[in-house]
Every structure is written in structure tokens, then in C-alpha cells.
Amino acid sequence: MRVAVAGLGAIGRVMAARLAGGAVPGVELVAVAARDRSKAQMFLDDRRIVAPIVPLTEMPGLADLAIECAPAATMPEIARPMLQAGKKVMILSVGALLDAPDLVALAEREGGQIIVPTGALLGLDAVAAAAEGEIASVRMKTTKPIKGLMGAPYLVANNIDISTVSAPTKVFEGSAREAASGFPANLNVAVALSLAGIGPDRTVLEIWVDPQIERNMHEIWVDADSASFEMTIRNVPSDNPKTGRITPLSALAALRRMTAPMKVGT
């Protein structure tokens, strides 16, 4: 499977390096895309990665699948050319999907596919299984250190200063859809959870800031006719404090499942 990586930030660099090193059998890194070509070339040269830096519009001609590792605003620019060509795209900026519902219709019409890996969350297989029955409620609480939420549009728009917070403080409560708009770099996990379950408008989310913690923590409560369950994950931040180290590893695991002779899990 020929794979392109779009975006060489904290996640994209890990993806490119691991794929170029043969981390996933049967998967070949064939191209990358980046806004800063000179910086991207320096990274590729430093890691001895042989892959051309190409415009997004050229990716469909080279790759079977593109992995989106870019800022949320550029997600449609990455996904649309691939889907129009009937190819696959793995989306990490899942929150941006809520503002681009046409992409799902485009994938269906052209025979393409949108893949959303579990990312920095857990238990999406259990939530998806419960959704085959009836789910009464899904609630999620996300707690992050100050630097993990600093600069979020919702905080800026509402003049919420978290720089001097000295105790755990709730800064938001609402739907996953509202969270995706107000915290686009922080809450892709909430949107992924909502898409696996009862949708972005019925999935309730709380966001807390805690100056005493160093890891991003997500707690989930699901009540369904088949099961009731609770889940907690504490993620080690990556070089970008807004995301966890497990996020690119989740994408690699998703690629491995696509090419493996045996798949474990829903």
C-alpha cells in the first residue's frame, strides 16, 4: 500500500520516520506534503528519508492512502483530492469533519474511504458495538495541563485566562460539536467518540484545566442497553502539548490492521 503523509508537525514527523523505516509491513512511504518545504527537506535529509515533497493535488497520483497530520483548517484540502480519485484518507483532525459533511458523500460517490483511527482515546470498538443496539448517553471529561489548552479559540473568545489557574477548573461543558469548534486542536478525541456512538450533538463533554498534572486525561462514561462502562486514559504529551504521543502510534496500528493477515478487535 502506497502511503503519503500530509503535514510534518509533531505527528507527521513520527509517521514519516516510522513508515520510511519499514514499521508496517506492506506499507511504503511514497510522498510527503508540508507548508514549509525547506524545513521539511531538512527533516527528511536529517532522517535520511527518501520521499518527494509534493503539492496536495499530486498525492492521488502517487498514493493509495494519505494520512492527514496537518492543522484542522487544511483537512479538506488534503482529503478532497484523494476522495475525488476514489482513494483513501486517514483523518486525524477529526473535528474538522463536522464542518465538511460533503466529504463523506464524496467518498461514497467516488468509491473512496475516510478512516478515523482511535487516536488518543480508547474503547471506540466497545462504543461502536454498543451503538449497534441503543445507547442512552455518552459523557466525557477531558482534563489537561495549562499548556495543553492555552490559546484555544473558545477561551480567547470568552476571555477565559487559564495562565494563573491554581486548582482544577472546569472551563467548558457542552456537546462534542461545540467543543470541536471551540477547541479545534484539542478535542478530536471527543468527535471520534461521538462518531462511534450517538453523534456530536448528544455526546456531552466537560473540559477541565489542572495545573498539577502533566498528562492529558480522558474519562468516558457510556450507558447502553447492552452494557454500561467507564474508561480512563492518561496520555503522555508529544512535542506538541495539545496532542499525545499515542496519536501517531494509533494511526500506525490502523495501517497495520489494513494489511495484516489477522485482525484483532472490532
Low-confidence stretches: none
- CATH superfamily membership of the largest domain: NAD(P)-binding Rossmann-like Domain
Pairing-aware structural class of the strands and helices? alpha/beta
Number of helices: 11
CATH class descriptor name of the largest domain: Alpha Beta
Count of all domains: 2
What's the overall average pLDDT, rounded?
94
Gross CATH architecture of the largest domain: 3-Layer(aba) Sandwich
Euclidean distance between termini CA atoms: 22 Å
Report on this structure.
This protein has 266 residues and is α/β, with parallel strands linked by helices. The protein folds into two domains: 2-119 and 246-259, NAD(P)-binding Rossmann-like Domain (Rossmann fold); 124-235, Dihydrodipicolinate Reductase, domain 2, CATH 3.30.360. It contains eleven helices and ten strands. The strands form two sheets. A five-stranded parallel sheet has the order 2-1-3-4-5, with helices on both faces. A five-stranded mixed sheet has the order 7-8-6-9-10. Strand 9 (216-224) and strand 10 form a beta hairpin. Helix 1 packs parallel to helix 11 and helix 9 (176-182) runs antiparallel to helix 10. The longest helix is centred in the last third of the chain and has 14 residues, at 246-259. 43% of the residues are buried. The model has no long low-confidence stretch (mean pLDDT 94).
